[in-house]
Design goal:
This protein is α+β, with helices and mostly antiparallel strands and about 270 residues long. It has two domains: about 120 residues, CBS-domain; about 130 residues, CBS-domain (Roll). About 40% of the residues lie in helices and about 20% in strands. It contains twelve helices and eleven strands. A four-stranded mixed β-sheet has the order 1-2-3-4. Strands 9-10-11 form a three-stranded mixed β-sheet. Strand 9, helix 11 and strand 10 form a beta-alpha-beta unit. The longest helix is centred in the last third of the chain and has 14 residues. It is flat and about 60 Å long.
Length: about 270
């Protein structure tokens, strides 16, 4: 199977001079997690110059480097990762998945002869997780066991720092060993946008440090049993637009299963075949 067989052919783009509020609106409207950033030259050719993700927005807005700037002052070019990795449409899905894992990216624009023809993300691989052997392998066999967790009463800036340092997209929130919620890069991005809109500039730096995880986290978290199969996990993620799911054994949190865990399995299968 090749990239062209599973990629999204209609790509949502953002101009480098648009602001990050526009970016978040596009991400929310189209239920996507990343946007290729373009620069339209004098010949009206759309040149790929970067890529912007929810995590990029969360990291920049929580940074003291950008101080008290309002969200409208953050352009896509400020937040984007320049010169993004790309892939050709005739590459195998195994090669694409391995490239994404090795470079710790969640998606790549698909470029043929200098033209953007699509985009491939971890979500697109979930559609391949059907039937054998995905219905024969349990979540417990492929989940991540070494969990990074956080308390609801810790500061949001600490959650942001964990997401940066550990290069993760979500953190389970525990109280007395029980799962109370989950906080994601998207949650942090949206909270930072809202915060900067309503808090006067001179108070931003001090008050942002007082935000707690409980102010932002998602409660009533959807979970999956360790006994569920990988194809059930993939279908659950697709249906709910999740990138990862806490894994439970009864009431106990025992791991987390993410798109990356599924990609690792796909790479193993492709290399064997």
């Amino acid at each position: 199977m090749h990239v062209k067989d599973i990629m999204q052919k209609e790509v949502v783009l953002i101009d480098k001079d648009q602001n990050i509020q526009d970016a978040l609106k596009l991400i929310e409207k189209h239920k996507i997690s990343r946007l290729p950033v373009i620069n339209t030259n004098q010949d009206h050719v759309k040149e790929l110059v970067g890529i912007i993700t929810e995590k990029d927005i969360a990291l920049r807005l929580g940074s003291s480097k950008y101080g008290n700037l309002a969200p409208s002052h953050f352009h896509a070019s400020t937040v984007m990762t320049p010169d993004p990795l790309t892939v050709e449409s005739n590459r195998s899905i195994g090669v694409a998945a391995k490239t994404m894992i090795e470079n710790k990216v969640g998606g790549m624009p698909v470029v043929d002869e200098g033209e953007i023809v699509g985009i491939i993300t971890k979500t697109d691989f979930l559609n391949t997780c059907r039937g054998r052997p995905f219905n024969e392998i349990t979540v417990e066999e492929r989940m991540t066991r070494d969990l990074i967790t956080i308390s609801a009463y810790e500061r949001l800036v600490h959650a942001r720092r964990l997401i940066i340092d550990e290069n993760i997209g979500r953190i389970p929130v525990l109280e007395d060993a029980e799962l109370e919620g989950i906080i994601t890069a998207k949650d942090i991005a949206n909270s930072m946008i809202s915060f900067r809109k309503v808090v006067p500039d001179k108070y931003k730096h001090a008050r942002i440090r007082n935000l707690l995880v409980e102010d932002v986290m998602t409660q009533n978290v959807k979970k999956i049993s360790k006994e569920a199969s990988l194809d059930e996990a993939a279908a659950f993620m697709l249906e709910n637009n999740f990138s990862g799911l806490p894994v439970v054994d009864g009431k106990d949190l025992v791991g987390i299963i993410t798109k990356t865990d599924l990609l690792n399995f796909i790479v193993e299968l492709e290399e064997v075949s």
